[in-house]
Amino acid sequence: MQTSTFFKLTRRISTLAPAVLAALGCFATVGARAQYTSTNQSPTYLRDVLPIFMGNCSSCHNQQSRFVYNWLDYKTAYGDRWEIRRRIWDSWKGRYYKEAMPIANSPESLALNDDQRLIIRDWVDNGAPIGVAPAEGGPKSKAERIQLGQRLFSSICAACHQPTGQGRPNIFPPLAGSDFLNADKNRAIRIVISGRQGEVVVNGAKYNNNMPSFPLTDSDIANVLTFVYNSFGNSGLEVKPEEVKTVRALPAMPVAAPTTVVPAAKSAFE
C-alpha cells in the first residue's frame, strides 16, 4: 500500500514539474526586467535598445558593414526585429536553429547579460517602438563629464580599445598615450562623429581596421572624449558639447585620415 502511494505521488510530481519550472522561469524573468519595469515603461529603441546595440553589436552591425544589417539605424533594426529576437533570445535559449548572436563565447556575447537579452526580446514583443532619447542634462563640470564619459567608454569603446586603453595589436590602435589622439582634438571629435576607415599610424605602429560612427549626442561625444583625454596618460584636455556641435556642422570629409600625425591649429576652446 505504501509502495503504491509512493508511485502515485512520484507520477503527480512529474506532471507538475514543467509547470513549477515554468513558474520559476517567470519569476526569473520578472526579476531581470526590473531595471525598466520599475518605472512602468516598456523598452524603446532610443532609450533602452540602442545603447545595448552600440555596446555589444556595433563592431559588426554598423553603417559600414557590407554583409550584415546596420542595427544602429532604427528603420533597419525595426525591419530585422524578429530575426534580432530569434538570434539574441531564441537561439540563446536553444529554440532556434541558427547561431546565436553575438557569436557564442565572443567578447560581445560574454558582455551581453540576461537583462539586456530580455530588454531586446520585450522590445520586439511590444512592437519595437522607437521612443524618445533621454534628454541631455545642463552644463557639467569637467569632473562630471569624466564620470559620465567613463560609463560610455566602458559600454561602447572598451570592447575594441580595451578597458586599459591599450587596444589590440595590429587591429585596434591604443588610446593610451596616443600621439595620434593628442595631436588634434578636432580630428578626434570628427572620427567619433563619422567613424574611420583605413590605415593609421599610432605611436609608431600601423593599424588598419574600421571604426563605425555611433549615434551619440554632442554631450555623449564630449563626455567620452573628455574621459579618454584625462585617462591613460593622455593630455588632460576637456571636450565640450559646443566643440562637437561646431565640428559636426563642418562639411563632410572622407572618414580615412592621413596616416601621419600632422599638428593642427589650436582649438579656440582650449
Give a brief description.
This protein is an all-alpha fold. 50% of the residues lie in helices and 3% in strands.
Whole-number tally of structural domains: 2
Using the CA coordinates, give the radius of gyration.
23 Å
Compute the number of helices.
Answer: 12
Task: Count the E strands.
Answer: 2
CATH class assignment of the largest domain: Mainly Alpha
Description of the molecule:
This protein has helices spanning 2-32, 34-37, 45-56, 74-79, 81-90, 107-111, 114-125, 142-161, 179-183, 185-194, 218-229, 241-248, and strands spanning 199-202, 205-208. The longest helix has 31 residues, at 2-32. It has 2 domains: 41-125, no CATH class; 142-248, Cytochrome c-like domain (Cytochrome Bc1 Complex, Chain D, domain 2, Orthogonal Bundle). Strands 1-2 form a two-stranded antiparallel sheet. The protein is mostly helical and 270 residues long. The chain is built from 12 helices and 2 strands; from the N terminus they run H-H-H-H-H-H-H-H-H-H-E-E-H-H. The radius of gyration is 23 Å and the shape is globular. Residues 1-35 and 255-270 have low confidence and may be disordered.
